Amino acid sequence: MLKKEKGTMKTLTENEAFALVSPCPFTLLTSLNQQKKPYVMGISWVTRTSLNPCLMLVAIAHDRYSHEGIKLHREFVINYPNTEQEEAAWTSRMLSGRCNDKVNKTGFELIDSLKVQAPTIKDATVALECKVVNLFTTGDHTAFVGKVVAMRGNKDKTQYLEIKSMTGFFPGMKQLIQISPKVS
């Protein structure tokens, strides 16, 4: 029989709830736009969904510029930027790709990926190359499920960036990015 006591739990707003479950990794998604030009976007809605096969899910708002390219080309690379890439990573989060060449404005050096046409960010802590195997609508976002077809990383760059808190995560709030602890 369930107890009817409330205990210490209280009703929370959406921002309060997600602030309590932060931090979460901040990644850079590289893809190709409709003209096959390299594109980068900052994203934190990324998760692993399967071990075998290795599947990753990224959730992208329907109105985002990268949404069109990923839907068309059906591939992307999830790059976990290293701590030296923090400023460029934040810049990629702040700019729209419709009006800006984010690759040039951020200064990221892109390299060829091993198995997909979308480029990889040079010196990322980890880069996961993915081919879309499924996609579905989840409200105002599309969930793209990608099969990881190649993985690369930099064992000398063991720190990555993460969102410290989702509360008020809006443009201009740079203090929300913090560096993860070094992994031994």
UniProtKB/TrEMBL annotation:
Record-level Gene Ontology MF annotations: FMN binding; oxidoreductase activity, acting on the CH-NH group of donors, NAD or NADP as acceptor
Residues covered by the Flavin reductase like domain: 20-162
Lineage: Bacteria, Pseudomonadati, Candidatus Auribacterota, Candidatus Auribacteria, Candidatus Auribacterales
Domain of life: Bacteria
SMART domains listed in its UniProt record: Flavin_Reduct
The protein's required cofactors: FMN
Protein name as it appears in the record: Flavin reductase family protein
Organism of provenance: Candidatus Auribacter fodinae
Keywords (A to Z) from UniProt: Flavoprotein
Family stated for the protein in its record: Belongs to the flavoredoxin family.
